[in-house]
Amino acid sequence: MVVYRLRVATGPYFLAGTLDSISVTLVGTNTESHKQLLDHIGRDFTPGAVHKYKVNSSCELGELLLVRLHKERYSFFPKDSWYCSYITVTDPSGVVTCFPCYQWIEGYCTVELRPGTGKIICHDSLPLLLDHRKKELRDRQECYRWKIYAPGFPRIVDVNSFEEMESDRRFALTKTTPFADQGSGSGNRYLPGFPSKIDIPSLLHMDPNIRYSFTKTASLLSNAIPVSLGMKLRGLLDRKGSWKKLDDIRKIFWCHKTPILEYVTEHWKEDHFFGYQYLNGVNPVMIHRLSSLPSNFPITDPMVAPSLGPSTCLQAELEKGSIFLADYWILGDAPVGHLNGRPQYVAAPLCLLWLNPQGALLPLAIQLLLPHTRYTLQVNTIARATLLNPEGLVDKVTSIGRPGLLYLMSTGLAHLTYTMFCLPDNLKARGVQCIPNYYYRDDGMKIWEAIDNFVNEIVNCYYPSDIFVQRDSELQAWVGEIFTQAFLGRKSSGFPSCLSTTEELVKFLTAIIFNCSAQHAAVNSGQHDFGAWMPNAPSSMRNPPPQTKGTTTLKTYLDTIPEVNITCNNLLLFWLVSQEPKDQRPLGTYPDEHFTEEAPRQSIAAFQNRLAQISQDIQNRNKTLALPYTYLDPPLIENSVSI
Q: Which residues does the annotation say bind Ca(2+) 2 (predicted)?
């Protein structure tokens, strides 16, 4: 008789423990143990606890390959979910093998865990392990199915697949109970205190391993409900009509001020701040360098002479490379809707900017073209249920509404390229490498390089040569699925449909990590800062833009920007998407130890050290700035898109 010693760790999360019966089977290269119940006197598997057990076997099992966890009914108790962090097994010779889990296990089922040593498919030769890979992939494909949301839109996760699996006795992915009347009609409905409809059924059924934790959910609700109720009680959400004066807008965000918001409120009308936002605002990737003027922008020297001054001219500045353009062509054919029963307007402007000798980016000319009258898996599901759903927040605050936003996203995807997706290539293509005070570029490149070095070390650990990349069928299928489902198989995009070299793999992974962490932080985190002062970023226009310079008055401006209730709805939107809920995991933080080998552990530590140095550099620089740029400070960047 030989004895294997187990340590079973339960996650430290709310309701992570279980009352269900847990048994284990150890599988080795020689044989497997008998199924054995893990049971002590008293409560087992409590949140945050690590319990020790012994498993007896009539003979040595050989090298350990799998741990099978069996979760079954205990007495008369109902099903109880369990978050298992990891299991370590010490064999009779003293060798310790760690089996990471880090997942919610729901219902009555058997889960197979592999050791934490990273392996690609080329490293597996035993039929047992190859079958395990196939089964795991098949189960994931059955769980995460694709669905068409709108024409030209990236494919989305079909949350109905979670609901179907819930009803299957083999699975029980969520404990959420549907509303009693869910089947009686549309689930798109109002909730008390919230100003727009929410597609409730799409939020009910979600794999517990991708949905928000209890802490994050509670934090999100505590961010949303008090703000919304506060505006409701003050009558702002129901007040239609124009603002009487600009200072009145300050009243709606009196308790949600930030230093940046205060700065925006004071400087929003200044040319230097207008140009600054193209570099370090919420959309720092719009401008590109011009060598000649576009044909649809008939600007002459006399028009810009007052801004350029007598010592230069437009052509000279074009040749010098100091003229830039922000082109909002994508708005040209966007459909426009109604707000408060009134038709709205949208413009597709061209904005010419000049990098002056002092290093300031200033607007030279703005042309308004009037076309016509008239936002990871959980967070995307939340967005579709609260923002993109009919009569959701987007319909409540923007000129273009849901149809217009769907148009923008599908049109934007049709023009998205791999060059635009990769920061170094994007900066080079736009010709913005030399603009001073471009903190998004400077901080972004430091983070890109840190991610690139980290990914390069990890990839080279498991893919020693290009042939390993080419022969990894799981990797190639993953890349192909992204190309087909996310970028709709569009070859002109330049996105890879397969990978041939380790260099290509490193770049692809770096781009994905950067865009899902740093890039999202850069364009999302500042929305409240830059948008809460509504005049700086109005979401709609009630009148067409002026066609003659100098004809605008304060009254015509107030009658054009959003009404009181629309402004409040928009502020609520900016507040929600800018407030990262609790339970955060900053970039480079990996509390779930899926890697057990020393090499990747060292790479993670080096990555974290580099990010810490970048953070220190950013904080030192920001001490010297009137308006600090904080959105790419690593501790403030989430590992993934989560809001």
A: 39
